[in-house]
Structure formats: structure tokens, C-alpha cells
Amino acid sequence: MVTNAKKGQSVGRRGVPRLTNRLKVDDKFTPCPGEDGDEMYPNGIFEFNITKMIEYIQENPDGIILEEVRVSDFSKDFSSINESHMDSVDISQPVILAEISPGRYNLIDGNHRMEKAQRMGVEKIPAYKLNAEQHVRFLTSGRAYIAYVEYWNSKVKALKEQGSE
Hey, what CATH topology would domain 31-142 get? Predict the structure, then answer.
């Protein structure tokens, strides 16, 4: 794997830098607050505040990777699709992907857009790709933050043991 100029990053697929160092627990971490009407993405213990994440992306567009992603790379079976909402879905609006482990991105916002693109036979759609340091600030609890750091570090350790770094 090619190492990028920044310490702790390597270049993954398509030349996109990714963090491969262990994360350190920030004792000053403050969970992202949720307000009435905020959209949340629950994934087990991890819950992200999508509304605040979108605000961050809009305020920091140059710091976020925006690229076309293949629709076929994502699950074809979205369990919570609201069919009555599908007609109004705009697939030109980027979905949000979060780097959940080194080089592995999960769709955390845009299930309806991804589903509509699949139904329409669209090959690629735009996506914002947030690395771990960018999306971890949107976790809504300290417990989830600690669990995420431990999870990330276990994945980094496994990569190092496999000699992938």
C-alpha cells in the first residue's frame, strides 16, 4: 500500500487517503446534541446526528471528499424505505458515507436516494465521504464514542497484523 505524505494515512482505493493510525480517546469529547427535529442514524450503540453532520458538510465543503460511488456497491435491501416518499427523492443530492473501519464506508444518510438510483438503473451517484475523525464528532453519546474508538483501533490492529499497512 502506498503511504501518503501525512503521518497515519495511507492511500486506499481510488487514491483516497485514509487514516490507519489508532484513534486516541479525547477526554474532552462532547457528544453531539440532538434537538427536536434532528435526523438521527442509529446503528447499534452508535448513533449519529445526521442533521448536524449535514450542517458541518455545508460549512466545510472543501474539507469533505465528494465523489461518485457505484450504486451496486451498496445493499439492495433497504428495510425502512417509505414508498410514498420515493417520488420526491432527488438522487442528484449526495448521500453520506462514513468510514466505519479503515477503508470501509457505510451509507449513513441517503437510503432512499440509493434505492431510487438502483430502481432507475443508475450506475453512480454523488457521495460525501467522511473519515473517522470527521464523523466521530457526530456521535450522540460518550459511551458510543468510547466504543467506536475501541472498535476502530481493533480494526487498525487487525490490519497491521495482516501486514496490510
Answer: 3.90.1530
